[in-house]
């Protein structure tokens, strides 16, 4: 499948470090969009600030690179402005759950038909390796030189608690699974949330794992397991992958359009 | 809701006049968050917008509101948000984004007493400099105001027109007194006031469209998200494709463009009204609700044979320096009337030839400045004591 057809090659080379997982996620997203047969003109990709948020610039869709944490707020305006467009929002872990945490929970609460993808590498990469809300306890960062004492968010639990009607998790090691989840998430009528565990060899890996990017990625095979797998009972530390929530619930933009139609009938 | 084809009269408050003006101008999307004294704008639009096929959303905060109107504007909608001091502070980052990405939208700030939470229910005009410089970095901005509902309606329509013409956020900087004051408003028939629609690109599908390459006249025709041209929008310094750049030449040209497209248009953007200025020996300069008291002073003193005039500013930014300079020339003295510690007063001093002749009559305690307050300052200047 020609991934290049969806790239703005004029702006290459991209700025991600060698071994970064973000390119893998971008490739899976492109394959999902190809699989869904979406027209390029019907796709809007909205991002915030950070390494992950540079993705839209490379993609040949309508692309909006906004402010740190605010991608979902901009995306809400886009979706309300033209509900027929597919709105996809790639974010980083800090972008989505620290500065943008409020917008995340409210987009989930409204159940607006937007697909949020959180590329979780447990660190702020663009600014040089500071702790994020998903940095594990005891992990080192430039702002936690002796080890992090802040408890981490479980983003899947956060999205579930806020009412997202589609919640899933995958990793860069499981690219086909990730692609399938993107397909389901984009198809889902309502707010869909996909967390992708990804590797930051430059900042997180160097301080904490001391292994090659490939080794970091391969670790996702052993540190995660599918939902419902017996492995989880043996080792409760394993992180579950799969679709956690897939519900039908009233979607925000379409129910607003319905209200407009009702008001017009009454007049 | 049927739109009337003739002018209609209403007895309403200023915030409602903003709503009527916005609807007249073609508002399609509003995002906001409740805050005194601007909330009536949101409440009215929650009802009136969907009835006309438009959309209203109550966002989780003012940051999100500002971001949402930018997102919706890129899909082709005319958009607006409204707030007051604390909310306006929260909007500053995204306001700068709209400046940088050149996204037309209107931001209403119904000024209340500050700083911080201040006094939520009382009047002030102390956000004049925040409107100019609230967001970071070199930039230019348009800020408009009015003292009565008829002017407020007209200036609201103009705010949308200027946002489209110059591809910029426009700040409608009114104050609590104007926002909550009730008086008669005549809503003109459709077509009576000019409404500027979005300038769209004529570049056809399949041909390279450069979203950030200004035409010779400085304007940038747009292409809506969902249309045939796919391009990038960013708050970073960007090239003609909208793609991020750190090239010094690109940065220099972009910042110059953002400032020049507004600052060079001072004469086109300047809106002001001259009352009895022709033969005036004393000139009052005021704006917003303060201008009502200033006008009363002028009318009272004229009856006593004093040659006094008023220059009422409806454009605050870019500062209408030419109008101020021209009207101030040859006057014995100039008295700026405003409800802050001298924010426009300083601008007037910069603009006129004899800054030592410029005085200030002001209040900043939450109480509306009256003709008596202004009269006391006039007496002081004239050596008559208080």
Overview of this structure, please?
The complex is a heterodimer of chains A (267) and B (386). Chain A has helices at residues 22-36, 55-58, 71-81, 93-99, 101-110, 155-162, 175-187, 201-208, 213-223, 231-234, 252-266, and strands at residues 43-47, 62-65, 86-92, 114-120, 166-171, 192-197, 224-226, 239-246. Chain A is of the alpha/beta class. Chain A has a single domain (19-266), classed as Rossmann fold. In chain A, helix 1 packs across helix 7 and helix 5 (101-110) crosses helix 6. The longest helix of chain A is centred in the first third of the chain and has 15 residues, at 22-36. Chain A is globular, with a radius of gyration of 18 Å. The longest helix of chain B is centred in the middle third of the chain and has 18 residues, at 149-166. Chain B has helices spanning 14-25, 39-51, 62-73, 85-101, 128-133, 149-166, 176-180, 248-263, 266-269, 290-303, 321-328, 343-351, 371-381, and strands spanning 8-13, 27-32, 55-58, 78-83, 105-113, 119-123, 142-144, 169-175, 182-187, 232-234, 272-275, 282-286, 308-313, 315-317, 333-338, 358-362. Chain B has 13 helices and 16 strands. Chain B is α/β, with parallel strands linked by helices and 386 residues long. The chains are: A alpha/beta (267), B alpha/beta (386). Chains A and B meet through strand 2, helix 3, helix 5 and helix 11 of A and strand 2, helix 3, helix 4 and strand 10 of B. Strand 2 (62-65) of chain A pairs parallel with strand 10 (232-234) of chain B.
